[in-house]
Predict the 3D structure of the following.
Amino acid sequence: MHSELVGKAGGGKVRASSYSVKSAVLAHLGGSGKHSHMPQPVLIAAELKNLLGPADLADLDITWLSADQPTPKGDYVAIVPLLSRWVGGTEFKNLPALIIVANCAVGYDNVDVVAAELRGVIVTNTPDVLTDATADLTWALILACARRVIEGVDVIRSGTWTGWHPQQLLGLELRGKTLGIFGAGRIGQAVGRRALGFGMKIRYASRTPKPDFERETGATRLELGPLLHESDVVTLHTPSTPETKGVINSDTLARMRAGAILVNTARGDLVHEEALAIALEEGRLGAAGLDVYTDEPAIHPRLRAAPRTVLLPHIGSATRETRRRMAAIALANVRAVLAGQPPLTPVYRP
Ligand code: NAP
Ligand code: GLV
């Protein structure tokens, strides 16, 4: 295997070789490419329909696939799945002509990349275009937790508000406090840059140092243990991998400061949900702001019932502009590859 995962933080993307891409397309077309003007059969998540324009879809023979339908068998050359659709060994077996999986998300833990690589199938994602939207939503969760926004809304809605009180719903003042970022890639760094405006000190844990980020923000790199110990707000921004799954568990929660806030807009399985619910029930943790869950759309019942949570339905990248750009990049990857060009945003290099 000569491939290498790409798309790491800080840009520097490695392009898939156009030779191997062209070979895969020509092999599919029977060697000569003489049918390349024929519309190519592709599977596209039906939920993306209203985000795509005619130019994104021209010359494709599209089968729209809704989230509740299983992935069909067939001669499709491309699939554009949502992050909720698993694409692995069975799907590769059932889609023998597949050339590209163009995931409509930056995270690609729903795709078996090793199986794809063994089959010579290109995998692409949608980096960069969703960084700001997701960093903004992370801050919405940080502020909602720190300033007890949901409890305030509940007081108003329940009709129990009796007027201004000097000790009502006292929250955490962010200025001078420490933000701990686990995973300082595109989104983690964007969250860190926003912290400067709130007067926070920044700590981060990452596999590799980020000198530019440190220069720009004064951030300091720490191991996860000290980061949890020093931070008033901990925010998670790694992908879901065998190394990061369950990284927040009863042991690591016990290392967090009493009253600290945990925010997760990365992937749900980074957090052991029952352990988090217990830490909230026992009042050890100040609050948790979550956008993602281990078994979406299910949420651990104890976590759903836990106090001081702000729970959102995986809307990190959900602005009109960003969702359009994500869909457009996914289709641009398909069109590039079917035209024999390198993919724009590959997750591994053949
Ligand atoms: P990215 O630029 O690739 O950043 C990921 C960072 O995680 C990288 O800096 C990487 O470190 C770091 N990392 C990986 N494994 C690690 C480990 N074991 N320990 C410490 N750090 C580790 O990705 P991104 O664009 O910021 O996106 C991050 C994740 O956010 C995505 O994978 C996705 O799951 C999630 N996401 C969620 C939403 C939402 O709607 N809630 C939206 C967008 C993204 P190195 O730089 O050292 O390699
Ligand atoms: C959303 O969760 C993404 O990975 O883009």
In short: The pocket of NAP (ligand 1) is lined by residues 8-9, 106-107, 127, 130, 134, 183-188, 205-208, 237-239, 241, 243-244, 265-267, 291-292, 314, 316-317 (CB under 6 Å).
